[in-house]
Amino acid sequence: VLKVLSHIDSILRSPRAPPLIYRRSKGPVQNYSKENGQECGFEHLPLTIEMWADQLMALKDLHRSLRKLSLELVPCHTADPQDNRESIRVEDLQFIVDAILEEIENKEKNSQTPSLPTLFAIVSHFQKLFDVNSLNGVYPRMNEVYTKLGEMTNAMRNLHELLELDSSAPPTVVVDTVGKLCAIINENVTEQVEQLLGTQDIHRIMKKLEEHECFFPPFQALIQDLLCLLEISNLDDILPTVRNLK
Q1: By Cβ atoms counted within 10 A, which residue in 18, 103, 150, 220 is the most buried?
Q2: DSSP H helical segments within the chain, as ranges?
Q3: 238 lies in which domain range?
Q4: Are residues 192 and 207 located together in one domain of the fold?
């Protein structure tokens, strides 16, 4: 018995043993003694063994709890047929924990991929925005929108360069600048026309137009009457026909 207890004591004193398991007794020395006559410190063994037994039982309870959690989080993993074995090792618990952590990491990665309802909502929203009646028309309209967007982007970039605007200027600034430029051009054209014709020339032209409106209708009526009277259809035949009548 002394040999067995000495072996147990050496295990408890081993560096691999948790520091809280072995505690040197502070009470009276027991009757057991080593070969060198020193105390063996076995008086703490019953409490230590009881604690070990409790820890082993708690290890089984922890194993069952982890298995339940694993079945909830990792339903694809079937129960281990050795789950009901008597001896549960820490390696078994670590294996279950690693499997759960791996499943959580995979779910976090897969969560970045949109679900089918999300994709359907995106397609439906695109159809509403760009007036697409069927799914077959989504891709052609996407290509059309992409082409138009490229054309508009190039046009806006060229306008920014021509108008010497910053590339970050919004479209409203571009439109306002073009409007101001057109107004300046129109004002210059009006001024140039007035300088070319002059104020007096404009009034003279207006007077000539008024005289034309007064003269031309009676003259046109006279010519029509002569053509009917002489029974001809060409203006150049009026004078020769009148000479012949003379």
Answers
A1: 103
A2: 2-12, 45-73, 90-110, 116-129, 138-162, 171-230, 238-245
A3: 202-245
A4: no
